[in-house]
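A reminder before we start the practical. When you read a complex entry, don't treat the lines as separate problems. The point of joint prediction is that each chain is placed relative to the others, so the output describes one connected object in space. Small molecules and nucleic acid strands, if listed, are placed in the same frame. In the example below there are three entries. Take a minute to note the order of the lines before looking further.
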Amino acid sequence: MKAKKNITMKEAKEKTGLSSRQIRYYDQQDLVFPGRSRGNQRLFSENDIERLLKIKDLITAGNSIETVRSKLRAPETQTNGQYEFDYENEFDYSDVKLDSLFPVSNRSELIKRLSRSNSKGFKEEEE
DNA sequence: TTTCTTACA
DNA sequence: TGTAAGTA
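Here is the predicted structure of the whole assembly.
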């Protein structure tokens, strides 16, 4: 499927529940790679949104930016100026209704973290 | 009006 | 992270 980057900051903010500040920050940290057309404005795709959602969960789960970065590797398999995104994805939420607020596609990671929390003490920190 | 960047609280 | 300033 193709990822059309037509989602504006406003949309991204509403869809992810993150602040524009956070989204831009994650962008700077190379956690997401939104398109950049029209007056330097960011344009996200559904994939970017989902990626943002994963990042959000990871961060709120107590992980640092570096941790997230190591888990979600830079997907650009660029050629030269124009790069293709092939983190096209793992799951298509296009026609799936989200009835849960935990759209993590990476379930194994989640399980691992949860298990870890059980065996070792767990932390629930920063935001 | 909204987003962008830079910079400060 | 939030918010202000000055743009585009």
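Discuss with your neighbour: Confidence is low (pLDDT under 50) at residues 77-106 of chain A. What might explain this?
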